[in-house]
User: What shape does this take?
Amino acid sequence: MSFSDDDNQDDCVREISYNVSPFSTNELFSSVDELKDWAKKIGREVGVVVVTQWSKTNAGGEVVKVWLMCDHGGSYNCTATVRRSGTIKTGCNFSLIGNYLRQYNGWRLRVVDDTHNHELIQHFEGHAYTGRLTPVQKVMVHDMYRNRAPPHDILCNLKSKDERNVTCIKTMYNEGQKIRKEDR
Assistant: This one.
């Protein structure tokens, strides 16, 4: 079949699309933490929470391979007998593998499966995993709480220091409860 009209050819070319994963990269990472941080940052941009599924260590205890997945991946094994509990697990197939390449002294990320069987996250506020406090933030919350700062002020202070912070007020109340138990 030959095309005599440029418009027809453009229409056919537009139909062909190559889906390239936002996680596809040729970058060589200097550490496993740098690789995981990069994957989590890209995941946040596209609406996915990337978590570590498992990792493999060598005889010296150093991580040499890491499997990353969507937080909706896997299946939920309910052991509750009285109450029914919920889960966000949907068996999502999204999977990434990070390998340490000795010859390059760096880490490479490979996309195994970039598909999801759930809707991507639009707003991360209130999400259990992304709303967790870092160790530095926990120290700040504990100091402010012990100085009698109200939870709302503590949360505002956290958010002013980090614009990407999606912690909610409930986390502040939970931290306050932990502090009161420690002080008893």
Notes: The helical segments are 6-15, 32-46, 135-146, 151-161, 169-183. The chain has five helices and four strands. The longest strand covers residues 50-57. Residues 1-18 have pLDDT under 50 and may be disordered.
